[in-house]
Structures are given as structure tokens and as C-alpha cells.
Amino acid sequence: MNNNQTIQIIGAGLCGSLLALRLGQRGFNVEVFEKRPDLRKVDISAGRSINLAFSNRGIKAMNMVGIQHKAEPLCIPMHGRMLHDIEGNTFLSPYSGKENEYINSISRTDLNALLLNEAEALDNVTIHFNHKCTSVDFENKISYFYKYEDKTEFSKAADVIIGTDGAGSVLRKSYYLEKKFLFSFSQDYLTHGYKELSILPAENGGFKTFKNALHIWGRDSFMLIALPNLDGSFTVTLFLSYEDGEYNFNNLTTPERVTAFFSTYFKDALELMPNLLDDFFKNPTSPLGTVKCSPWHYKGNTLLLGDAAHAIVPFYGQGMNASFEDVTEFDKLLDENFTDWESLFKAFETDRKKDTDAIADLAIDNFHEMKGHVNNAIFREKRNLEMAFEKTFPEAYASKYGLVTFNENIGYREAMLRGRAQDKAILNMLTDGDIETPLKLDNKTWLEHTLKQVQAETE
Ligand code: FAD
């Protein structure tokens, strides 16, 4: 594609800033408009997930733009899930039986700031903060903006406009409000919302609980999770129904009820959170939803990327990773011989949408798995068996979680299909007694035979 063109990007979040950097590296003139203030100068973290699980697909994108060595120091490795039962006993369930397969906790602000710094260092990339896009005339490739500083409105044309403006995308809204083409859109909310809380650092600045894990207090119909931060704190997230159950967001309205809820279900966490009530009543409760839509593009004029095209619930830790992978996949097509944007956008969407639909569905599945199944005996047996397969035959086996999270060379859809077939086979074989229990995990011959049985079932 001819890189003398100007590409306008709406939204300088994680996806938009990576896209700006990559297109800038390719020599395009890039102009980015972000509605919020510059997060490198103003703290705007309130109400958004403070840290994120960052894994192979995201790392691949950082390698593409040559900055993984700068992202790595921002990461805290999390080797597994630390499961907390109701009595406060803990159990570490590794994410993989293979060496070097782990996920990372990373600060949203630090990662976004890194991407902004790198993009802004390029002469051909300009980023305007405090500029809110109000609508897009996608037929004529003109965006309309409101500038907070002087309360003025203006419009800006470009050769191509890309909306990376997140789950509430204005470009996407323009698609369905204008009704100029057949645009399908769905937004499905969970009946659960989330609230962020925190475990502050210990007095000596250290971590109050085990650092290198994603902590989970799964209680079937609700759960609490915690991810570590570099300053010794943990960001804790409560996922709870708005209105169902004895305790829910709508009826946790007094300090006494919140304390009663936490002392009944999350006693060991409560001991680490003397600041609970402050956080609980200060921080917002936010909804969780899945957005699917199509098409993502209008002719060769405009395109949606990242959450604007496919917002998902956070339970696979893949929303940002998938948004980064959008940019890697888009970038690959720029190397092919497309002569017009429309063909490139079409090819991108044809390839990509099946994968983003798959991760959206997997993320919902994982919600149920994290809340409940991780505590279930048969689920644990399956995990132990899969871990032993991965450890003993690393080339021959990867669990569904491993295929989704650690295999950046296959798409989410393929990972989902292979992973689901394996899950089904193992769970059925354990239930029907086709896999002998107790499992002989130290016996290589037994493991090899069992792996062959599982592979035969999934073929
Ligand atoms: P966003 O990060 O939402 O960025 C959109 C940007 O556009 C923002 O800067 C916004 O200010 C700007 N914008 C919006 N409207 C306008 C406008 N009208 N004009 C100009 N600018 C505009 N993903 C993971 O991979 N791992 C995780 O562990 C994880 N945990 C999560 C936990 C929670 C609770 C939530 C809610 C999400 C989580 N995610 C996670 C998902 C992840 O946050 C998103 O997928 C990711 O932020 C998407 O990036 P984006 O750039 O597409 O959208």
C-alpha cells in the first residue's frame, strides 16, 4: 500500500497506540485522536482494570514493533492460579506443565505509556489528547471532534480512518446510526459486574501474599481474583451478580454487609485488605459485556480494530492480547500485494473474525470454569493429567488453555476446536472409567498409553 497516505486513528488506548507505532514504522502519516488526557501526565486509571494478564500473542506484537525488551521489565510472571478455598487453604495450579509457559501481570498505564512514547518518537506520528470524536462520516472519510481545552468543534479528513476507540466505539455507532449498509451488531451483558479493590504492599514494601500467581477465590456464583503489581500491591477484582444471590452488588450497600460478605467467603483475603471498605465504596461497579459486529469496515474508508470490533469479557485474560494480535495480523497483510484498502480490509476481516468470535466464546466458558470448576475434583484430575502430558511429552500435547494462551502460531478458533475436543474426551474418559484412577502420573508408559487414548478420541 502507498504509505504517502494519512491514516487517522481514533483512540490511543492499547490497540490504537500499538497501531500508530506500527503504521508509523511503516512510513504512513499517522494522526491519532484520544478523548482522555495524556495518561503519562494525569492519573486516569480509576475505574479501568489497572493491571492485565499479558501473554504470548501480546508479546508477539511487542516483538513485531521491537520493544519487548522494554515491556519485559514491566512484567511480573504468574506461573499459575493460586486457588484459595473458603477455609483459606491455598493450592497452586500451574498454567502449564511445560517450562517457560507462564503469563504476566502488567500495568495498563505503563504499557500504554510505553507504546505512546515509542509512537510519538516517530516524526510521522502525531497524537492529540483531550480530543473526543463525536461522529464519523465514513462515506466521505471525515471525523468530527470536540476539543475539551477550548470547547471547540472541528472536523478532520483522512485517506483511511481506523476506530480503536474501545467497546463504546463512536465509529461503530456511526455505522449503525447512519444505516447506509447492512450492519449487524450484538452486545450481551453478563448479569455479573466487577469492582476493583486492592491489597496494599506490606510495610517493608514487599508482597503480602505469594507474588508470582494469579490468585482466585472461586465461590461458584461469584469470585475474587488478584494480580500483582510492581510496587508490592495487588489489584483485586470482585466479580459478582448485580441482583442474584444473598449478597449482590445491589444489596452490598453498608459497611456491615460488605464486611459480613468478605468474612464469610473471603476471610483470608479480608485479612490482607484493611482498606477494603474505602475501596469498595470509592470504586465504581462496572458491567461486563461481549460485543460482536460485522462488517468491521466500510469500503476501503474505515475499519474497526480491538475492542471497538470485538469486546470480550475478561476471563481468559485475552482482550488486550487479541487486540494486539489484530495489529500483528493487519500488519502481515500490509506485506501482501493489495492495491486497495477495501480488498485488504475484507481479507483481514474474513481471516480474523472467526478467531475473535472464538475467543469471545472461550472467555464466557472460562468465567464458569474460574468460578466453580477449578474447585471440582474431576476438573483437578483432568488438569493434573494434562500437566503430566505437557511435562512428559511437551511436543505432543498442549491443553486448551495452553493452545489459547501460549501458542501464538495458531488462531483462537483452531485453539478452541482442538482444546474443546480434548476437554470433552478427557472428562468423558475420566467419568466413564476409561482412564484408570488413581492416575499414574509418574509412570511414563501409562501416560503415553493414556495420551494415545485421548488422541484417538479427539481425531
Ligand atoms: P481501550 O483500551 O478501551 O482503548 C480505547 C481508547 O479509545 C481509550 O483510550 C479511550 O479513551 C479512547 N476513546 C474512546 N472513545 C473515544 C472517542 N469518542 N474519541 C477519542 N478517543 C476515544 N485483556 C487482557 O488481555 N488481559 C487481561 O487480563 C484483561 N483484563 C481485563 C479486566 C477487565 C476488568 C476488563 C474490563 C478488561 C480486561 N482486558 C484484559 C481487556 C482489555 O482491557 C481490552 O481488551 C483492551 O483494553 C482493548 O484495547 P483497545 O485499545 O481496543 O480499547
Your description of this structure?
It is a single chain. The protein starts with 5 loop residues before the first strand and ends with a helix. The protein folds into three domains: 6-78 and 104-184 and 290-367, FAD/NAD(P)-binding domain, CATH 3.50.50.60; 188-287; 376-458, no CATH class. Helix 1 runs parallel beside helix 4 (108-120) and helix 1 runs parallel beside helix 10 (319-334). With 459 residues, the chain is an alpha/beta fold. The protein has helices at residues 14-25, 56-64, 68-71, 108-120, 170-178, 255-265, 267-271, 276-282, 307-310, 319-334, 341-371, 377-392, 400-405, 412-431, 444-458, and strands spanning 6-10, 29-33, 51-54, 76-78, 80-84, 90-94, 103-107, 125-128, 131-137, 142-147, 152-157, 160-163, 184-199, 213-218, 223-228, 234-241, 285-294, 297-298, 302-304. The chain contains 15 helices and 19 strands. The model has no long low-confidence stretch (mean pLDDT 95). The protein is globular and about 65 Å long. Residues 10-16, 33-36, 49, 52-53, 132-133, 164-166, 170, 194, 237, 306-308, 314, 317-321, 323 line the site of flavin-adenine dinucleotide.
Give short descriptive properties of this protein.
459 residues, alpha/beta, 6-stranded mixed beta sheet, 39% helix, globular, binds flavin-adenine dinucleotide
Specify the CATH architecture of the largest domain. 3-Layer(bba) Sandwich
CATH C-level name of the largest domain: Alpha Beta
Provide the CATH superfamily of the largest domain: FAD/NAD(P)-binding domain
Helix content: 25-40%
Largest sheet: 7 strands, mixed
Mean pLDDT: 95
